[in-house]
Amino acid sequence: MLMLKNYLKITFRNILRNKLYASINILGLAIGIASFLFISLYIYNELCYDTFWENSDRIYRVDAAWTWPDGESRYATAPPPLAPRMELDIPEIKLATRILKRGDFTFRPETNHDRIFRETNVYLADENYFLVFSDRLLQGNAKTVLAEPLSIVISESAAKRYFGEKIYDEESLIGRSILGGKDVGTAWKITGIMKDVPLNSHQDFEIVVPMSGWWKHNDNWGWNIMHTYVLIEDNVIIEDATDNIRSKLDDIVRSHTFSGKDRSANTGEGLKYYLMPLKSIHLHSDFLGEMKPNGNITMVYIFGLVAILILIVACVNFTNLATALSVKRAKEVGVHKVLGSGRTSLTIKFLVEAMLYSAFATLLALVAVELFILFASPSLGINLVTGIFDRPEFIIGTLVIMIGSGLLAGFYPALIISKYQPSESLKGAITIKSKGFSLRNSLVVFQFTASIGLILSSSIISEQLDYIRASKLGFDKENVLVIQNDREIDEERMRFKELLLPHYEILDVSFSTGIPALDRFMVRDYALEDESASMGLRWFEIDHDFISTMNLKLIEGKNFQRGSVYDSMGIVLNEQAVEELGLVDPIGKNIVINRGEDDERTVHVTGVVENFHFESLHKIVKPLGMEFLRDYTFKDYISIKIAPGKTMKAVELIKDAWHTLEPQVPITYSFLESDFDALYQAEVKLQSVFNIFSSLTLIIAGLGLFGLATYTAQQRQKEISIRKVLGASVSTIMALLLKNFFALACTGLILASVMVIFFAERWLSSFAFRTTLGIEQFTLAFIATSGILLVSVLYQTFKAALSNPVDSIKED
User: What is the DSSP string of 142-174?
Assistant: First the structure.
């Protein structure tokens, strides 16, 4: 204990004696540890999605897919009749439940009719939803909360929002009412209060209402619209149960769906169902109809690699700086050895010193992480909880990182410094063998490789995002405002247009049940009238102004005409749909939609539009049918084309028109350009993270290079002095010292380029439309790194080149 106390005293003295080096060491390690901890928190958060549910290991989502020989369109949803059929046919399933986002709702608390809320996250749910997703109710009976058609379950936050925290805390809200509809005509009885759905869940809603009484279309096997979940029986082995369920799902396709009845089993076409484990949804599911954008397991791997790289670079930086100081501390080592200290005790002494540096850096890192979570993570689109000091697993992990970083950073310097011989160190005649120098060169190459690699990755991500933003989408996304109408003013469509179109700020207005970037497109079964074979096509309804509002290019036929009875049973296809349906001279051809189902109908092709990107550029353009908008069955959207530069005035006009027709309903709107850009939020998040952490890596690497430049100048001081005496100029000396660093930088560039090209090609392959890698990206990365190199080492090389040769030569 006394020895440890002495080591700590000596360490503090050395820190005070070498304040600059100590500050650089602690700062470099702190940046590395803070970066590692922050990214680790993000990864931990991603891996913990949906683990809080009571039966998370036994809950699976059932996904549907339209398949064909060379591909499939997979959904996060399934058809309405599937859940009850599974409960009947599959004994391994204890319970099945369905939830469905069914438009928007206008609600008021019964205590104040003037407080109006437009709820966009209301879901319909089966009666047994809270039995499958159990342990979520704060008040109410899980078996009966959704038994009555006009019952409602609200989250704790929604309850406080509607009735106030005081009323919520003082009395039970069970039995109270929330008034629905623009005319306050529907009283929803509160039967349950549920816990807020955590951020780390793939589900995203605040209010649940019963499906009974609000959903009548339970027999359509071709309509993948409901999120369907199954709870597996407790007394079965999960692996065996899931295998049996998958087999019986295939039986259900063959026995109950039109797909199984009408198509040959050898075609590979039709419906197929998949089981997705609840805890895998967030990182492994990116299908049509997701409740909200999910994460990506590839990003988790990438962020993990970045975290490890930054921490290692920080430790390398420490090693280089400690080595740079080793020459100055040679006499200290000699004195200790003369007084009887062995190599083991000296190694321990220097490791304790490294651990103390690591402890200071960790404390600084913890403060930085807490501040980063509070102020920076929201702008990165990363949701992390604060209060990290209250989490035992985080504290334990931090201690492990602190000890590991100290050992990793301090082991090599401790080993080298403790090896000095007293006879040499006391005379100041320390020389370092080439093997040690080669190791330090290797560490610097690693720093350059990591730094250039992160800069290159950031540049490639930015290039792909710029490519996406500049790509021709086939429609105009600029200056288009989108209102989530949800059938509120459908009876007044023409009146709404009449209120807006006379104003020059408004160029066009259209109604549709789908818009580009929606990512919730329904699929219908399409077949030519005289053929039995069919296929699933994406589908939505549009009015006669949609094509002009979006500026779609009509290449055959005509647009829907106002007041035309013939066009009311028409459909406009994109080029891909014409090709995949095998249509020749498509105009006027009849197509049967959902043959054999209750909503079977025959439509005729009135026009063909050029392919446009209604989904993200990750995907190829899929076949699409746009049917004429006739009724008010589905949630719809109002798209309004605004004159350039007139957005503020146009928004005022739109709000006035809305409130003229719907004074009791709040308006909910967004801009199409923002909605489309949101499809790439994962890439934007990736870009932000790489920008930040590549900059931090450059800073850490710069500190390390400063240390190595100091070390090199010290080791070669006599050589420099002799060269100066022999007539070498300052520029010659500086070139001599810089040459080695640029050779290491070039080696790092080559290694980084090879690795980045390998991984970038695989990342870019996830986009159906992508940029290409160019030499300019690699050139810019090398220039940026070279700039950091010059800033880091120029001072030391210039100082060494200007030093008085007499002072150095006299030291012998």
Answer: TTTTTSSTTEEEEEHHHHHHHH-HHHHHHS--T
